[in-house]
Amino acid sequence: MKNEYLLNVIETVKARNKGEDEFFQTITEVLGSLEPVIEQHPEYIKAGLIDRLVEPERIIKFRVPWVDDEGNVRVNRGYRIQFNSAIGPYKGGLRLHPSVNESIIKFLGFEQIFKNSLTGLPIGGGKGGSDFDPKGKSDAEVMRFCQSFMTELYRHIGPDVDVPAGDIGVGAREIGYLFGQYKRIRGAYENGVLTGKSIPYGGSLARPEATGFGLCYFCDAMLRANGESFQGKKVVISGSGNVAIYACVKATTLGGKVVTMSDSNGYVYDPEGIDIEAVMDIKLVKRGRIKEYLSYRPNAEYHEGCKNIWNVPCDIALPCATQNEMDLEGAKTLVKNGCKVLCEGANMPCTPDAIDYAMANGVLYGPSKAANAGGVSVSALEMSQNSMRYSWSFEEVDAKLKDIMENIFAASAAAAEQYGMPGNYMAGANIAGFQKVADAMMAQGII
Ligand code: NDP
């Protein structure tokens, strides 16, 4: 990058956010793509647009005390980042995982600004979570944690202010406990305050499926634009959570054969194609480990550790577990084994050198902020349904989701083309997502 203004902003971010590697990683990637846009818009520099964009509007950090089943007092740390409200109320998930810290929440919040903009829906960027680990906790412990978390968070959110949703470790159970506590404290039935709710109290049909389905709709659009399809392709998926499960369902429906799934302990390889009913039973019903897959399909293999999942030869790789799960070595192995498509279901699952290597070797690359925007899209549709006090059928929501994902692909491809980088969907997504936010920020003055 040569643009002095952007280089200065990057230096300032580094100095101001010491040790926040994930945040710095996403800032460098996004600003790297914006260079040609900034060159064409000197008015952005005058308005300090990028200086403002990289600084969150607000970060809330709080104590979350709760009592475990043995009567011990436990204390976790809660976060909510309200990054950018130029185009709508803050919107983004809550992550419960021991690795959560300020850097992770900031990186996720920053990505969310552009992802939400790409959906074409009126939602700003936010994110939140806690270093609480739901793994191994009883339902009662999870409930007490969620109630304590919401007892602080409620004063900062609202249907027109900030609308959290699920992410790693936060599914329908947690959203239910969080909503129950919000309603009790607010004394009002504002179900538009959270998305990812169950159907009986305002959830949207197709929300659980949305991120995984949306990923495959995006990937399918990218394949078709390049004269290909899912038909007959071997697919490697990492993770076995919400995103991975429904990506597996849709990739299979579109004619692909998914041969792997994983969790943080290891991965399974099933040459006959993953039996998704078995994975759903293990993960969604029993909250068990992926290793148990072998008791359903004795001919499958289980491998300890997740890193080697990229050694499994495939045509399409869909990383759907967590950030930086694929490094350069993983990308090299994929390319060596003939992989042609890399599309990100998780947020920032590939390291920058892995992405560069894949793209330099002709792999079609779908970046997470575009490819996994299906979840937040249906979350925004859930907000619309809550506002209307009405609900759409599964087919209606699914059709809107497909439309949105195809539009995101088209917008990313068009922006890449416009700025002389045809096929670079990463740059295209960054630029297309940025443009709408930039226009809104310019219109609203220096705030
Ligand atoms: P879940 O909690 O449902 O599942 C996460 C999966 O990833 C689990 O299989 C988990 O295994 C595995 N995993 C977590 N951490 C690691 C790790 N360090 N190494 C290897 N595997 C790991 O989360 P989601 O499916 O909802 O989210 C997955 C990714 O998709 C995240 O990056 C999230 O931000 C992103 N995303 C999710 C959206 C959604 O709608 N849910 C929307 C957009 C993005 P284990 O059970 O062992 O922890």
What does this structure look like?
- This protein has helices at 4-16, 21-40, 42-46, 49-53, 102-118, 139-153, 172-186, 207-225, 242-253, 276-285, 293-296, 328-336, 352-360, 368-371, 374-388, 394-418, 425-443; strands at 58-67, 73-84, 90-96, 124-130, 162-165, 234-238, 257-262, 266-269, 301-304, 316-319, 341-343, 364-366.
- With 447 residues, it is α/β, with parallel strands linked by helices.
- The strands form two sheets. A seven-stranded mixed sheet has the order 9-8-7-6-10-11-12, sandwiched between helices.
- Helix 8 (207-225) crosses helix 9, helix 12 (328-336) packs parallel to helix 13 and helix 15 packs across helix 16 (394-418).
- The two termini are 28 Å apart.
- It binds NADPH dihydro-nicotinamide-adenine-dinucleotide phosphate.
- Residues 166-169, 211, 239-244, 263-265, 306, 320-322, 325, 345-347, 372, 375 line the site of NADPH dihydro-nicotinamide-adenine-dinucleotide phosphate.
Question: What's the short story on this structure?
Answer:
With 447 residues, the chain is of the alpha/beta class. It is built from 17 helices and 12 strands.
